[in-house]
Amino acid sequence: TLTPAALETYFARSLGFALLALGLTVLLLSGALPLAATDASHPEGTASPYADAAVSVSALHHATSAFYCYSRWLHTGQTASVMGCLGSGVFAVFGLWFVMFAGSKGRHSKRTGFDKDTSGFPFKNSEAYRKKKKGL
């Protein structure tokens, strides 16, 4: 078996620490972990102003990491590369979903709490139409 060189070990550990730092940064800037004690100026349940930026950078990192792992898998055929590609790809897709849908300030009905900007395409909500007809 081949043993890794000292430089390879250094780079591997440095990358590991960089990924841990990136993960901690995302947790802190997204508002998942509070940076300070709660006060009245930030109501409960509001997102951090840096949440979208932190998640966007994290999603970009995972997308490029998934691309790199995929290209390594094509070149070497190692199973670890394809597993890294799948893991990073899942995080990239989840981050993209969060940026597109979860962070938006949709128009919600005060009465029902549902989003007003929904569409019936490609399926119609016939049950809602029946209830609306009965109410009229």
UniProtKB/TrEMBL annotation:
The keyword Membrane applies. Keywords: Membrane, Transmembrane, Transmembrane helix. The chain crosses the membrane at residues 15-37, 80-102. It comes from the Eukaryota. This is Uncharacterized protein.
